[in-house]
Specification:
Structural class: alpha+beta
Low-confidence stretches: 474-479, 799-810
Oligomer: single chain
Length: 810
């Protein structure tokens, strides 16, 4: 008995110890969990709990304005309404949800007895009625908003495509993370486990729970009408089907009514429409300064659409996948902006949200983060009821260096209806002449020599912003001749032709390869034994016509520039050699973007395409001495090269935003060489032998330049187009090849007040390029003449001129 009692007591103690151990183990587990929740994850969990007690509501902001140098508004927001529709309506899911709801209500008695498959089949029988109602709702919406139904369908497709891409990327990234986590835990990914991970990854994204814009920025009348429509309901009569087992799903004679929204998923929100007041401008142009048959003593009213579209650009609707990453990178590179934009919780008040408008091209894109405002944020503490407001901050204005009226005057002068930008019989000989009456595309740039500020930057044909935002359609055959999407001032590159001769002279003379006043005879052809290539443009084998013997008392280099002698500058190019000719062009900006705009291209030195990397010879150097061969640049490059000459060799990067300082470099030019180059440019436009002096039309001499009270230094250029011309086309990553014949017509020059070239100071640099247009003097110089008159009319230059009138639509 005692032994038994002892053993029983021992067993009791053992069980007690076991229970105590289990209790200690449980306590240890709970304690470890408590430590983890408090010490390890406490801060994170507290933050999560606090977030759940906070309700955030955003308040809209406005985008900053874009102004010209005088304060004229080029772009601004105006109040409007955005019409949106829930994603589940656009995707068709709404019909499925409502058909299930209707089936359950209409068959309430039988519903508990039906299996899952039967319930689904019953709901599917009603789905077409709700889908048809949703489609009719879109038609009603189109009618009230006054827009074509096809426009709503197109925006629906865009929304579905955009969200589809977001969903696929989200699921793919999440699946990748789940696989990585499973592999890190040592799990072998079997087919079953892979399917489980795919189900876990396949989750809706935020964009599938939001409404999407189908009609942006409607006016007040339509907006209030649609607001009223959003409050309306409709009674939908749905034919019933049988739920009896014998004839399940067969039509019956009964109907059931259900109240549904008149337009399912319709949401009307406050919005900001972007308007561009100077997109359409009417100018009264003085025709008394035009040449030949275009001359008339009366004024001409010219309306130009898209005056500032290439420069100001436009905003697009909808956020691209890369936009948030670009925004984060910008904030990371600008700590002060990040501190201004982020809340104390690290939330960016300028973050992109569904339906936002984003700068897409031009200044709108280049200054997106400055123009973009910061939303207001209302923070409400649910447990205490406390509320605080972080006020919204409108986007900051951007003031450009552009003069919008000057821009409009130049665009008007380059309009085909005036006649300067149309192929005319006197433009060139038959070898290079386009068909008479054919519109010519081109570009013009005006720079302030002292500051590097861009006063005007015109590209033709112009493009109304409404067309651009709507996705203008271009015939493939028109690319290169009439494609309005290309900003020819900075996004297209061309061989310089003879306008480069002034730069080559200044560089060769400053690098010891040319002695001032040195005579270089014009033999008519540069290569002694080849008369068929590298010829002077004046050379005629039968009459052996050259420039030798026709020059006057001025130094040879100035006269060679005046008459644009090819042999003279072939020789300078060959003396410099390929490497130092490249140095010359690089010093004047070729190879770097000429201005900080997204679509600006840097130009190019060297062979491209299949010949890239082929060694160049002294023949190539001789060609580059006259602006031909393996060198291309833009009109902006050209204008700034001449501005650099006017500054005596100080290169300033052009700026288009007031207050921005462009990079400055002294490229090292000898003052006397520069003086002779400027003398040659003056002779070119003021001596009767100069290539920029006059044109004979119907036997009558017409001076290219007729503005009083100014001094003009300039050079014409007729550049042979290469077999392939590269252009930057919006929406295409790489420059696109364009093949054309003919020659490009250049005029680049300087203008200043006063008629004494020794006392006048160059104040403005002007570059004009007309594409595939023939003679630089006959085509581009008359356009430059109109630019000088426009500068006078706007008070930038002295001299009398007629007062032109300007009007603006909108």
């Amino acid at each position: 008995m005692g032994m038994y009692d002892k053993d029983g007591l021992g067993m009791f103690h053992g069980r007690l110890l076991l229970l105590a151990g289990l209790m200690l183990l449980g306590t240890a587990v709970l304690g470890a969990q408590l430590v983890r929740l408090t010490a390890v994850e406490g801060a994170q969990l507290r933050a999560e709990a606090e977030r759940r007690l906070v309700r955030l509501s955003w308040e809209p902001t406005t985008r900053g304005r874009i102004l010209d140098r005088t304060g004229r508004v080029l772009a601004q927001d105006r109040p409007a309404f955005d019409v949106r529709v829930d994603y589940d309506v656009l995707s068709g899911e709404w019909a499925g949800v409502w058909s299930a709801f209707f089936a359950r209500r209409a068959h309430a008695e039988a519903w508990p007895e039906l299996g899952r498959t039967q319930r689904s089949e019953l709901a599917e029988a009603y789905e077409p009625f709700f889908a048809d109602h949703a489609e009719r709702g879109l038609a009603v919406l189109a009618d009230h908003a006054g827009v074509p139904l096809e426009e709503i369908y197109e925006r629906r497709k865009e929304a579905l495509d955009r969200v589809g891409v977001i969903r696929r990327n989200f699921v793919s990234n999440r699946l990748r993370e789940l696989r990585r986590a499973a592999t890190a835990r040592g799990r072998e990914l079997s087919q079953e486990h892979e399917r489980r991970l795919e189900r876990q990854a396949d989750r809706p994204v935020r964009e599938e729970r939001r409404p999407h814009t189908v009609i942006p920025a409607v006016g007040d009348d339509a907006g209030f009408d649609v607001l009223d429509l959003a409050e309306r309901t409709a009674v939908l009569e749905v034919p019933l089907v049988s739920d009896a087992p014998a004839d399940f799903g067969e039509p019956t004679a009964g109907f059931a009514r259900v109240e549904v929204p008149a337009v399912p998923g319709l949401v009307v929100g406050n919005s900001r429409a972007r308007e561009y007041p100077f997109d359409r401008v009417t100018v009264d142009l003085d025709r008394s300064t035009l040449p030949g048959p275009l001359h008339d003593e009366s004024a001409m009213s010219v309306t130009v659409d898209g005056v500032t579209s290439h420069l100001v650009g436009w905003v697009r609707e909808g956020v691209y996948q890369e936009d948030p990453a670009v925004r984060r990178a910008w904030l990371g590179a600008n700590p002060a902006e990040r501190a201004r934009a982020e809340t104390d919780r690290g939330t960016d008040r300028g973050q992109y949200m569904e339906g936002d408008r984003v700068g897409h091209t031009g200044i709108e894109a280049a200054m997106e983060h400055r123009l973009r405002g910061l939303r207001g944020l209302r923070v409400r503490q649910l447990d205490t009821g406390d509320e605080r407001l972080i006020p919204r901050e409108p986007g900051r204005d951007a003031t450009l260096t552009i003069d919008a009226v000057l821009q409009a005057r130049i665009a008007a002068a380059m309009s085909p209806e005036v006649g300067l930008a149309v192929a005319q019989p006197w433009h060139a000989d038959s070898k290079f002449r386009r068909d008479t009456g054919e519109p010519l595309s081109g570009a013009a740039v005006v720079l302030d020599v002292r500051t590097g500020e861009v006063l005007a930057m015109v590209s033709t044909p112009t493009m109304p912003i409404a067309d651009a935002r709507g996705g203008i359609q271009i015939d493939d055959d028109a690319i290169g001749v009439s494609d309005p999407r290309i900003n020819r001032a900075v996004s297209a590159i061309y061989p310089p032709g003879s306008i480069a001769k002034a730069m080559v002279l200044a560089w060769a003379g400053s690098r010891g390869e040319h002695a001032l006043h040195e005579r270089i005879p014009c033999t008519g052809h540069f290569l002694e034994n080849r008369q068929d290539i590298l010829r002077c443009w004046i050379y005629r084998p039968d009459a052996f016509q050259t420039h030798t013997g026709v020059l006057g008392e001025d130094p040879d280099e100035a006269q060679a520039l005046m008459v644009s002698c090819n042999i003279y500058f072939n020789t300078l190019g060959a003396r410099l050699g390929v490497d130092r000719v490249f140095e010359c062009y690089r010093a004047f900006g070729v190879g770097r973007r000429p201005i900080q705009l997204p679509d600006a291209v840097p130009g190019n030195l060297g062979l491209v395409g299949p010949l890239a990397g082929t060694p160049l010879t002294n023949v190539d150097a001789a060609l580059m001495g006259i602006g031909q061969g393996p060198v291309v640049w833009s009109p902006m490059h050209a204008a700034n090269a001449y501005a650099t000459l006017a500054r005596g060799g100080v290169r300033i990067e052009p700026t288009i935003v007031r207050g921005a300082d462009g990079r400055r470099d002294d490229i090292g030019l000898e003052p006397e060489v520069v003086r002779q180059a400027l003398r040659g440019l003056w002779l070119s436009t003021n001596d009767y032998r100069g290539t920029g002096y006059h044109v004979s039309i119907d036997g009558i001499y017409n001076r290219y330049f007729n503005a009083p009270g100014v001094t003009i230094w300039g050079k014409t250029g007729t550049a042979q187009a290469p077999a392939t011309l590269l252009k930057s086309v919006p929406g295409q990553e790489d420059p696109q090849p364009v093949t054309e014949k003919y020659t490009h017509a250049w005029f680049v020059g300087l203008v200043g007040e006063g008629e004494d070239p020794e006392a006048a100071e160059p104040r403005y640099a002007i570059a004009v390029l007309m594409e595939f247009a023939g003679s630089g003097g006959r085509v581009s110089a008359p356009v430059a003449n109109q630019i000088i008159h426009a500068l006078q009319a706007e008070g930038y230059l002295g001299g009398a001129t007629r007062t032109a009138q300007l009007g603006r639509d909108g």
